[in-house]
Amino acid sequence: MKDPAGIQFDDARKHAVAELKLPGVRHELPDLPTSFTELHIEQGPRLIDGGLQIGLVTAIVGQRRYTVTVRGIANHAGTTPMNDRADALQRAVDLIVALRNAASQLKSDLTFTVGEMHVSPNTSNVIPGLVTFTIDCRNNDEAVLDQFEHLIHQIVETPSHAKISSSVNRWAESNVTHLDDQLLENNQQLVDHLGFKSVQLASGAGHDSQIMAKVTRTTMIFVPSINGISHAPEENTSEADLLHGVELLAASLHQQAY
Amino acid sequence: MKDPAGIQFDDARKHAVAELKLPGVRHELPDLPTSFTELHIEQGPRLIDGGLQIGLVTAIVGQRRYTVTVRGIANHAGTTPMNDRADALQRAVDLIVALRNAASQLKSDLTFTVGEMHVSPNTSNVIPGLVTFTIDCRNNDEAVLDQFEHLIHQIVETPSHAKISSSVNRWAESNVTHLDDQLLENNQQLVDHLGFKSVQLASGAGHDSQIMAKVTRTTMIFVPSINGISHAPEENTSEADLLHGVELLAASLHQQAY
Fold first, then answer.
1. Contact between A82 and B112 using a beta-carbon 8 Å cutoff
2. Residue of B42, B111, B119 with shortest CB distance to A117
């Protein structure tokens, strides 16, 4: 990835880090803050779609990521009869449909995403012999993630064809982070007092708060992001909504400090 | 692609072509052969699985290749609610299932292969915004290919979601080639006289015969390929089956010449 001036992302990153002129790392942190408050755009559409000004974050979802590997037998697309194929892509497609159905039947707000897929040899006139795809799933209840993990194994590991095998590997996991209930309640009272329309919600994305919650009482405030877009050039929030967030942040910090 | 000595495929190809010391191209071909006979391995499993020695080729299948393009909206896998997604991969998966079902319901020996698939941005934590996949289909009846092409358009172009569109593009086509009926009948009599077990079948792969059939009477003889493998290092045919093929070829050429 290069910017318009042809500078590699990693070079720009190293340059920026070098410019920070970091002091020596402090191995001891005797003066931990007594609380941490993060103000952020929602990165999703719930506030903007609901005509709300503020989101008060109850928890940051737990995430698990998996790769499913399907091994069949690559062969000639013209000369291999349909009933004599071990087509890894067709099996992968059936697995994705079954996993999607299982996810939707959990009746929770589990998110389920197949974002990455690789087909081999990936040529129009060859039956695919190997397919891998990823699963990203998130929820604010570990029990739901456990339940879905059980279903993933059940679906992927049930044999379907003598010459096709499939397996699943979990390669990333982060637990649910519950933010501070007392700070949440205080923020709710402040929001109501300020007259902003608000909702309490879990964050589907990871945040700094996730790290800070391990060492101190942590709370988090969302403002709407237009069309729910984030990490893209179109990311935007109205000036009015930015000011609502700042107003609540100031009130909350004042309350925490005095 | 390099061989074990590190020579690029394309360099080896150019070297081989240069070594041919080709004479000047003849722009006129006054002395066309009166017939053309091709001996080839089957490249499929029908002869080997059926315990047969000879395949007599009736036709070379017509092929059509398409690319299906599905455009959704790429978005964050964690913060985008399930009911607010325009997931191009999930739509592509549904299309592949529908196309596969349509192909199998044609009750012909149409081959249907999705060999190549590209997902964008192809990252585990991003909902795919763009997916393309290919369709390779083949049959020895143009009417069946026409019928399936009609179904492809119907399936792909039926709207399913306000924010997802899909389209199909045919980028390759070759018509069914019917080989010579009289030569086929003569070969059948010779095979029966020689006592070889045989079957008449269409070829699912393209062959030189396809080109020659345009200028002269053409026929084609298959011998079994072990496990139906072709275009791979494991491609093999037993010595006995090679000799059956040569025996029939010699008898056929003798009959054609005298």
1. yes
2. B119
Does the domain at A17-61+176-257 match CATH 3.30.565.10? Answer given as no
Assigned architecture for domain B62-174: 2-Layer Sandwich (3.30)
Query: Is any Cβ of chain A less than 8 angstroms from the Cβ of B79?
Result: yes
CATH fold of A66-174 reads Alpha-Beta Plaits (3.30.70)
pLDDT by 10s per residue, chain A, length 258: 678 888 888 888 888 877 776 666 555 656 778 999 999 999 999 999 999 999 999 999 999 999 999 999 999 999 999 998 999 999 999 999 999 999 999 978 899 999 999 999 999 999 999 999 999 999 999 999 999 999 999 999 999 999 999 999 999 999 999 999 999 999 999 999 999 999 999 999 989 999 999 999 999 999 999 998 887 788 999 999 999 999 999 999 999 988
Nearest CB neighbour to A43, from listed B61, B76, B84: B76
Pairwise CB contact (< 8 Å): A126 & B115:
yes
B75, B116, B204 ranked by CB distance to A122: nearest: B116
- Residue extents of the structural domains in chain B: 19-61+177-257, 62-174
Q: Which of residues 218-237 of A touch B (CB under 8 A)?
A: 228-231
Q: Does B105 touch chain A (CB under 8 A)?
A: no
Using CA atoms of B13, B14, B20, B26 in order, give the dihedral in degrees to the nearest 10.
Answer: 110
DSSP structural state of residue A27: S
Peptide linkage before A33 cis (omega within 30 of 0): no
| CATH of region B19-61+177-257 | 3.40.630.10
ipTM summary value:
0.84
Considering only CB atoms, which chain B residues are within 8 Å of A87?
113
- The C-alpha atoms of residue A226 and residue B27 are separated, in whole angstroms, by 67
DSSP A140: S
